[in-house]
């Protein structure tokens, strides 16, 4: 349980610092023998830093409430 809490803390901190990323896909539009035209499309993926804060708080709560063994 403590390990999961630590992972949540790390993920939450990263999500608060970095609020999104973009990835690019290439799509073939025209293919006429040796002539090929392709199009690049950006796909943004974004999330709220509040979600990172919730994960961070949940991870801290899990670490502090974990039973010592």
Any overview of this molecule?
This protein has one domain (2-65). Helix content is 48%, strand content 36%. A two-stranded antiparallel ribbon has the order 1-2. Strand 1 (20-32) and strand 2 form a beta hairpin. 7% of the residues are buried. It is an alpha+beta fold. It is rod-shaped. It is built from two helices and two strands; from the N terminus they run H-E-E-H.
Q: Number of helical runs?
A: 2
Shape: rod-shaped
Regions with little confidence, pLDDT below 50 for 5+ residues: none
Strand order of the largest sheet: 1-2
SSE order, one letter for each helix or strand:
HEEH
Q: Estimate nothing, just give the exact number of structural domains.
A: 1
The structure class reads alpha+beta
Query: Helix amount, in percent?
Result: 40-55%
Largest sheet: 2 strands, antiparallel
Assembly state of the chains shown:
single chain
Approximate strand percentage: 35-45%
Mean pLDDT: 92
Using only CA atoms, what is the Rg?
Answer: 21 Å
Q: What is the count of β-strands?
A: 2
Rounded to the nearest angstrom, the distance between the terminal CA atoms is: 11 Å
């Amino acid at each position: 349980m403590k390990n999961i809490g630590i992972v949540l803390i790390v993920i939450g901190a990263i999500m608060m610092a970095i609020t999104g990323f973009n990835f690019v896909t290439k799509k073939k539009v025209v293919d006429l023998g040796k002539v090929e035209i392709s199009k690049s499309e950006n796909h943004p993926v974004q999330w709220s830093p509040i979600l990172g804060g919730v994960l961070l708080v949940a991870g801290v709560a899990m670490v502090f409430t974990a039973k010592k063994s």
